[in-house]
Amino acid sequence: MNRLSTITSSKIDCSALLRPGLTTPGGTAVSLAASGSPIVSGSLRELQLQPDLSLYASDVRDELDMEVTGMLQPGLLIVLPLAGEADVSYGGQRFLLGAGGAERSGLVVALTRRECFTRRLRRGARRRVVSLAFGTRWLAEHEDVLSAHQGLDSLLDTHLAVQKWRLSARVQALAGSVFELCASSTPLMSLCLESRCLDIAAETLAALTDVHRDPMCVLRPRERRRLAEFRAFLDSGEGDGWSMQALAERIGMSPSTLQRYFRLYTGSTVFAYQRCRLLDHARYALERDGISVSDAAHLAGYTNAANFATAFRRQFGKAPGSLRLRH
């Protein structure tokens, strides 16, 4: 008999997602919202492959709007978004993984201490993500190998240091095969998964070495501070409607440099970030204030309601009018 766990808050701990009766190791409990709806549907696995190496593989559809929170242990986190978009924060840094086009970028996050993370679920959204977490003991045991990779030492020594790189076809194929192995349930599954994860780590380290050969791909502390201030400026709404040239002059960079650095910092282009933020505001106004769809389109910066509806449906998986009907 399945056990039922009812969730009444809009913010939950990540452990609740590991009890939805999907393809989890336990697989005996179901996490439901107060409405009786499941939180996500699809395939979700979290496995401890070594004492200090864990794998998280998620191929799901969000069934509710929620924030999932949790804690990350010190070490190195590799995040590979294979399909869809993932809206996540590590500490105070927010990333829209998979946004802004077909090109897929991976994310490496260094953690020198425990840190919180937040994953935002959007009803109707789909995503396919593989994450690997290497703890400090694993990193120490492989110090000789890791030290051979240029720039990795400085990355590991800085809490919440982040590096992005374009996912190669090989890495995407390796990460995609993780789901096939998880579904096989053979006696050698854990050993095969461990081997696959080490292959992914090797490819990632090689890619990071290539990135660090290009000084333009590395964000120094001063640049991170400037970008944090610039993102706060965007979030305030003061820059809405500004041209790229005006925004670049505001931060004191050329438009091309701003785009490159902002993508490294957030995982998104400036305008893709603005579009997602404004659509979030429009959705909030539709749900909470009951404004009309045309007013929501104007709030999101769209002069054409049809274009707004298309963008809204792409981001949230539903038509803006479906929210308006609640009022």
Automatic annotation (TrEMBL):
<feature type="domain" description="HTH cro/C1-type">
    <location>
        <begin position="241"/>
        <end position="263"/>
    </location>
</feature>
<dbReference type="InterPro" id="IPR053142">
    <property type="entry name" value="PchR_regulatory_protein"/>
</dbReference>
<keyword id="KW-0804">Transcription</keyword>
<keyword id="KW-0805">Transcription regulation</keyword>
<protein>
    <submittedName>
        <fullName>AraC family transcriptional regulator</fullName>
    </submittedName>
</protein>
<dbReference type="InterPro" id="IPR018060">
    <property type="entry name" value="HTH_AraC"/>
</dbReference>
<dbReference type="Pfam" id="PF12833">
    <property type="entry name" value="HTH_18"/>
</dbReference>
<dbReference type="InterPro" id="IPR009057">
    <property type="entry name" value="Homeodomain-like_sf"/>
</dbReference>
<feature type="domain" description="HTH araC/xylS-type">
    <location>
        <begin position="228"/>
        <end position="326"/>
    </location>
</feature>
<dbReference type="InterPro" id="IPR001387">
    <property type="entry name" value="Cro/C1-type_HTH"/>
</dbReference>
